[in-house]
């Protein structure tokens, strides 16, 4: 006869029930889709271009419309800008998009897929990075001729007069 009775204790039944509930909750969490199966959008900004990728399943008809929204001030709500981009989403995967935002003066931007929301991109992140301007060719050519002439004259002086 086994040393323990064959009946299950109340705590082991509760722990199994809890484990099954946690497993069921983990399986119902969406993986790469939004909560309602919408596409996910990730956008970033550089200068006057807001670009990013949209990731999701294939769409009936093959085209997905992304809407650009802007926020005029930090306390205002997002509003449509009238710009949208169409992405060919015939199969699941990631697809690139971009918007020219040079004519807008907003504090933040967002790109929304149908039935979902994208990430918020602040206008401060759109500023161009630190760039060193290049000197124009019209300035570099005369300076290079003067530099070459100075080298030739310096060499002649160092070598002394020819006899």
The level 1 CATH classification of the domain at 40-126 is Mainly Beta
Number of strands: 7
CATH domain topology of the domain at 40-126: Immunoglobulin-like
- List the helices and strands in order: HEEEEEEEH
Mean pLDDT: 76
The share of residues in helices is: 25-40%
Class based on secondary structure composition and strand pairing: alpha+beta
For the sheet with most strands, the description reads:
4 strands, antiparallel
Low-confidence stretches: 25-35
Q: Layout of helices and strands, plus pairs?
A:
Layout: H1 10-28, E1 40-46, E2 49-56, E3 63-71, E4 79-88, E5 93-100, E6 108-112, E7 120-122, H2 137-159
Antiparallel strand pairs: 1-2, 2-5, 3-4, 3-6, 6-7
Primary descriptors:
single chain; 163 residues; alpha+beta; Immunoglobulin-like; four-stranded antiparallel β-sheet; 7 strands; elongated
Describe the structure.
It is a single chain. The chain has 163 residues and is an alpha+beta fold. It has a domain at 40-126: Immunoglobulin-like (Sandwich), CATH 2.60.40. 26% of the residues lie in helices and 31% in strands. The chain is built from 2 helices and 7 strands, in the order αβββββββα. It has a 4-stranded antiparallel β-sheet with strand order 4-3-6-7, with no helix packed on it. It has a 3-stranded antiparallel β-sheet with strand order 1-2-5, with no helix packed on it. It is elongated.
